[in-house]
Design brief:
Blueprint lengths: L8 E2 L3 E2 H6 L2 E5 L2 E5 L2 H11 L2 H6 L2 H12 L1
Antiparallel strand pairs: 1-2, 3-4
């Protein structure tokens, strides 16, 4: 299987700058990490269409739960 390397694009048509625009700052121990939003992670995984992602997650259910938690 060939490896695709993209320096400025992520599956789903996302760019690193678009990810950063909705990213969240998360504290892990003494460190602060910038992490992609759940919606962007899901969009990227759906676009990548990898079997391992499909096996572990029903992305529609994940977004529905997040919306309820945010309400």
């Amino acid at each position: 299987m060939p490896v695709q390397i993209h320096y400025d694009r992520i599956s789903g048509g996302l760019t690193f700058s678009s990810l950063r625009s909705r990213a969240q700052l998360v504290r892990v121990g003494d460190e602060k990490l910038v992490v992609a939003s759940l919606a962007h992670v899901i969009r990227s995984k759906q676009a990548a269409d990898r079997p391992k992602d499909a096996r572990c997650c029903d992305f529609r259910d994940t977004l529905m739960v997040k919306k309820k938690l945010d309400a």
